[in-house]
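Quick review question:
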């Protein structure tokens, strides 16, 4: 008797860079410590947009790395979750035995990308399977869609940890998209005063609601003049670049100009693979001792997993994930969801989530 595989729906990347919904086998539990989960919500990340409607290495793949769901089945070695549990899912899956994994920097594991795309970075599908350590129980009062966007907060808390932001400092956040806005929330929790710049009115209005000290629309105002005026001519203690992409050649230099002598510039925005070489004012960086701090994803900080840090803040009601989610779509309308993000000036999108 032939046993037919159980199937699920998933969004596959096409050669044109959009998505096609197809049926594919439900992933299996291949290790004793693996968990199978039904995806309930998946966020559209800014990094996903870098590959929207352009040919990429993801052709024919299931992508997406922001997700939450319900446990369906567990391997015999799993102790932390059980079928029926509601879970936030961290999609960073590393090898677990290299130097970087041993020192808690698993986000830098040489095998990270291959392993994560084979396991939990397949959020745009009905089911995922991966290591139990990446599944965190969430209480009933935390909605799946809010838990699904914790990945964004994870990157932002990593930026706070890397820069050591603290009470009494003045920081500038360049870019009022999801990374900039989640970073604003965490900077506020740290006790710093945040100025945030952007070019979209709806994002800057959200920044005001989230407690920004000042907002600057750099389409209408001179950012450097305003920041110097707001900081007594010194510049900011820390500047966070949260734009990236093709605009990074301009925004990184702007961030350096916004920083005070002895300050820091953190680089959160992802650079495009084919970004041409660009100039940086190394004279200012060197002579004024400005620290450049790259920020890539998140991992451990001390004894704590940064994903768990932001999950606890969400559970305690200290994050405003609900306010950031402006649009929700079913998986079958994933192309519409991506178009909504791509046209955010018209749609007023901030964070878009797929629900299943």
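Suggested answer, residue by residue:
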């Amino acid at each position: 008797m032939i046993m037919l595989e159980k199937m699920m729906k998933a969004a596959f990347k096409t050669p044109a860079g959009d998505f096609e919904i197809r049926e594919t086998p439900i992933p299996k539990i291949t290790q004793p410590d693996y968990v199978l989960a039904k995806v309930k919500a998946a966020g559209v990340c800014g990094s996903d947009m870098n590959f929207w409607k352009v040919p990429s290495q993801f052709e024919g793949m299931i992508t997406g790395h922001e997700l939450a769901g319900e446990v369906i089945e567990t391997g015999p070695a799993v102790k932390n979750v059980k079928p029926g549990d509601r879970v936030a899912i961290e999609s960073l899956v590393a090898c677990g035995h290299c130097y970087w994994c041993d020192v808690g920097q698993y986000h830098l594991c040489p095998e990270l990308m291959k392993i994560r795309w084979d396991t939990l970075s397949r959020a745009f599908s009905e089911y995922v399977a991966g290591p139990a350590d990446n599944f965190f129980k969430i209480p009933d009062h935390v909605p799946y869609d809010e838990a699904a966007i914790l990945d964004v907060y994870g990157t932002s808390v990593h930026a706070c940890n890397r820069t050591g932001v603290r009470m009494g400092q003045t920081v500038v956040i360049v870019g009022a998209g999801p990374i900039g806005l989640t970073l604003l929330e965490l900077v506020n929790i740290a006790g710093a005063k945040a100025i945030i710049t952007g070019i979209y009115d709806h994002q800057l209005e959200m920044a005001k609601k989230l407690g920004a000290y000042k907002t600057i629309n750099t389409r209408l105002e001179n950012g450097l003049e305003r920041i110097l005026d707001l900081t007594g001519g010194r510049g900011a203690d820390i500047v966070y670049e949260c734009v990236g992409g093709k605009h990074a050649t301009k925004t990184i230099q702007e961030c350096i100009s916004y920083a005070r002598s002895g300050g820091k510039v953190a680089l959160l925005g992802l650079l495009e693979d084919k970004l041409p070489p660009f100039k940086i004012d190394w004279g200012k960086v060197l002579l004024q001792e400005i620290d450049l701090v790259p920020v890539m994803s998140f991992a451990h900080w001390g004894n704590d997993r940064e994903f768990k840090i932001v999950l606890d803040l969400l559970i305690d009601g200290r994050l405003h994930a609900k306010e950031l989610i402006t649009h929700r779509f079913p998986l079958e309308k994933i192309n519409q969801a991506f178009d909504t993000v791509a046209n955010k000036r018209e749609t007023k999108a901030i964070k878009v989530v797929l629900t299943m």
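Why it works: The longest strand covers residues 34-43. The CA atoms of residues 74 and 287 lie 56 Å apart.
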